Amino acid sequence: MILLRTGCGLLALAIATPSLAQTPDAAELARLVQAQAAQIATLQARLDRLEGQQAAAAAAPVPAPAAQAAPTQVAQATPEQRRTVPFAPQLAPPGPAERNVAQAIAARENPSGVTTEWGSGLPVFHSADGVYTFKPRGRILADVSSSFGSKSDGRNLTTTGMRALRLGLEGGVGTHFFYQMEADFSENEVDVVTAFMGWRNRISPGLEYDVRAGHLFNDRGFEGSTGSDSTPFLERTTVATAIIPQRGFYGIGIMPRLFWKTGHASLTVTGDRVDGTQTVSDGRTFLARAHWNPIKTDNAVLHLGAWGFDESLSPAATTLTRNTVIGGRFNGALRVSTGPLLGGKGTTGYGLELGGYRGPLWIMAEAGRRDAQLDGGRPDFTSKAWSVSGGFFITGDLPPYNPRLGAFGQPKVKRPTFDGGPGAIELTARYEDLNQTDLLTGGSGWAATVGVNWYLNSFTRLQLNGIHWYTNNRTGDYTGGDSGETLSARVAVTF
């Protein structure tokens, strides 16, 4: 068909053009034959490409050029999770001439040369030269919680809530500059969370650093440094939620970090978190953490960690009152409270971490202390918390421990349900304790939790927690000893 159309075209061209109707000399004839051959090759390559698209899509992915597949820390997927395909598939016929024609056609249809690398649910975009990367990101964590057994009916609640509803982006320029920003909508209003720019580089083989500046998430404790989408339980331990700067988990500032083969260290200097107050000075927080893996093999890790912070409060934020989650985030009546506490000057806290994993079994113990300074000659007060957590993957998967950061990350599910496997199934248990009773209005409490996590793949999970809790508050609507149970469940997707 192609040859017939081409022959007709040449005949029409010869009739319409007197100069071509004449008998051409040898040079002219060679030029015509060469032009015709190029046209036939172009049309044949285009036809082959159209007929082969479906087969090419079903075939194994063609690796991207080295410049496009350069290693980047934007994508956190494993090689098994990645799939790199150009936006416009390019077929490469054996002949050099046909290869050049096919590449020319692809260049016209995809002049930018942008490629996409599929990781945890969403693509990472790469520029043709590999310099620029960009990735949308987000998380959806939907919870339901029911508490019962309390002596106070006001605590026996069934509620729903969005633990996180985030949208954001991350990217980089070259191998050194990177950025990230996320906003959360879980309380039906916009809350800026992570938002920073950074620079990373290698000092020597096995020794690297990065420096981030902006609205930063704390590097504080094992679960305190773990994102809400990666915690093995629906809520972090009392060490992470009570032994914390008054400003919370975020602050605007700078954080240099140093990484080596068996650990990392960080130093953070921040003011307050994102707000609209510029009429008084911000608070100031110094925070440092380090972790070390003296044992680190393919299926075993020993984790040691230590951290501490010192915080000077802003004149506009001297309230030290705290109501700490003990039996579920979405029951506002179920808290361990300090009672009303005004006139704070600052806080100091520190903690220790010890744990690790061997094969599918992991365990982690944390302990921390927070001292709060009050003005007016009043006595200071102390909060103490500790916890022991553990888990076991009955499907044989390894715990999602991140040795670079000394925290939990997204798991690497060996047999995802979307590929016909069982996913990864984890059984968990935890005991945690919080004591603030050296303050006259301070309360205490503890909780024992058992749970099960079903990871459908590396970014989708179902979680179920059963919690038996006890509180003894000295002020508020629910004073004295009280105990009960909370059953909570979560559906989570991180991308």
TrEMBL record:
Tell me if Ribosomal protein is a UniProt keyword of this record. no
Chain intervals with Low complexity compositional bias: 63-79
> Short name of one Pfam family for this protein?
Porin_O_P
The name on file for this protein is: Phosphate-selective porin OprO/OprP
User: Would I find DNA repair among this entry's keywords?
Assistant: no
Q: Which species is this UniProt entry from?
A: Sphingomonas prati
Q: Where is this region: Disordered?
A: 63-96
Regions annotated as coiled coil:
33-60
